[in-house]
Known about the structure:
- It is a single chain.
- By secondary structure, the chain is of the alpha/beta class.
- The protein is about 30% helix and about 20% strand.
- It is built from two helices and three strands, in the order βαβαβ.
- The protein has a three-stranded parallel sheet, with helices on one face.
Amino acid sequence: MTYVIAEAGSNHDGDFDQAFELIERAAAAEADAVKFQCIPPLKREWMPHLQEIAADHGIDFLATPCRTLRSRAQPSRP
């Protein structure tokens, strides 16, 4: 059995309505899940709402944590 994940990533450009549309498109494409990246500008308070929207469309909601890399010019932490 194949499990298809639609990668929304950060393609919402900080716009909730666009994030909503990405979920709708993933569902219309018959994906099993939609996955966002947890980086700015994805607002933390959006997460439960997006998860609920995905569930309402019959697909799973996934989010990948992302860490901002420091530049090489910054000293490393011990």
